[in-house]
Amino acid sequence: MEPDADLTAVLGAAPPASVAALPPEVQQRLAAQVAEAKRRLESDTEASVQKAIAGVPFAVRGIVKKALLG
Which whole-number Å values give the CA distances from 69 to 10, 18, 55, in the listed order? Predict the structure, then answer.
């Protein structure tokens, strides 16, 4: 396995040459940090949507949520 394989998986694409040149342990830490940031973003987005639709009548919340998130 290539040293940047985890980072590539987290990014969804090959990292730039400057990042690929980093030592493997740094790339692993970076991959972990990016993965954690993506998890937080997902969680924060869900919490924001829930807060935004709190005033929407229950019967149409699903429609509104789908409109907000696409």
Answer: 22, 34, 17
30, 22 in Cβ contact below 8 A? yes
Rounded Cα distance between 1 and 13, Å, is: 16
CA separation for the pair 37, 46 (Å, rounded): 14
CA 22/CA 26 separation, integer angstroms: 6
| Long-range pairs, 8-14, Cβ under 8 A, ≥24 | 10/34, 10/35, 10/38
Q: Share the mean pLDDT of the chain.
A: 88
Q: Supply the pTM of this predicted model.
A: 0.70
Domain boundaries, the chain: 5-69
**Using one digit for the tens of pLDDT, what is the confidence trace for 39-54?**
999 999 989 888 888 8
